[in-house]
Amino acid sequence: MLGGGAAGFFGAIACAEANPSLQVVLLEKTGKLLSKVRISGGGRCNVTHACESAAQLVAHYPRGSKQLKSAFQQFGVAETIAWFAKRGVALKMEADGRMFPSTDSSETIARALEEAARQAGVRIITNVSVDEIQPLPTGSFSLKLSGSGATKLNQTLQVSRLLIATGGNPKSANYDWLRALGHTIAEPVPSLFTFNVPNSPLSELMGVSVPQARVVLAGEKLQYEGPLLVTHWGVSGPAVLKLSAWGARRLSELGYVGTALINWIPTFTEETLRPWLQQFRQENGRKTVAANPQFGLPQRLWRNLTEQAGIGPELRWSDVPAKAQNRLLELLLRSPLAVRGKTTYKEEFVTCGGVSLAEIDLKTMQSRRVPGLYFAGEVLDIDGITGGFNFQAAWTTGYLAGRAMAESSAVTV
């Protein structure tokens, strides 16, 4: 198994447990294991998402949704919950459907995976690079190794089955070794990122959040609704992150430059908001506008929007000029933010792109091009929106690959 992340560990464990007679070895290029597991969810690890069916689950994958349905039917959310429960890890569901370990610590998940691998007899070697993969006429593979960890193995290692779970990478050239094996690569671009707004009119509002906002990319058929957070560099939160995932390729084509329109009150349209404001104005004419936030919006945000609309801090509703009221309506429904770049969401980099799914048997995760070669996780052209979906894809593809590889009775890496 190549790659000491979520998919690599799950594949190694599934393979070793399904056929204990196999020698299963997991190779990790760096000195760290399960690094993304440990940092994800702010150190809590968003393991999966509470979806009742495969059909419901696949709706959250911008890339891979159609192909993953059969895979999720074999090993989905319920199976993931049961897998961790069997190993003493209870998962809890939050109001938005995200599922975390009951301990709220990603170390709980990492330790469970490491212990499961140990009990299954998986041999784990870090600091070892695979410089060359040579398919052999016998159907096995010859691996040329380097790095300090390679001293624990022969410099050339022959294996009967090979799982590649090396994760995503933003640089196309870093997939050349997979192209050399005969695979087509969907060009990688970033997914799940926040928007940089250098001259944001909201810059003074860092830390302000709203539970529901709609973000629309002007001139494009891209929009998403959800919680939104104002940051010191622009805007973030699920609404932005999910929009970036669905629009990953288009945003890359645009050079991450455009105008994001924020609807702070998505339950309203212009047709419903205008009469609401008129009636509110008639009934509350003596109230100052800026000091009395409406629609449940945070005080700081409301003051900012009224200021942008040209409504002074002491101005009463009865005295607001029509032009200023129209401007406030426009800002509530379509606050324009000039996006000029992106920022990776914390340290949770996700890639749109990777090994083409048309070349993979999604029932076994085996390559259709190279027999005995398997893939799992983000190295594939699969990515989900934020909320535990990328980990679920890793668990599922790793498990299916590992079980399929267990059919071999020879040495397996």
TrEMBL record:
Record domain RsdA/BaiN/AoA(So)-like insert: where: 189-350
RsdA/BaiN/AoA(So)-like Rossmann fold-like domain mapped to chain residues: 2-403
Domain of life: Bacteria
Protein's UniProt keywords contain Secreted: no
Cofactor: FAD
PANTHER family xref list: OS12G0638800 PROTEIN (PTHR42887)
Protein name per its UniProtKB record: NAD(P)/FAD-dependent oxidoreductase
Species, as recorded: Hymenobacter mellowenesis
Lineage: Bacteria, Pseudomonadati, Bacteroidota, Cytophagia, Cytophagales
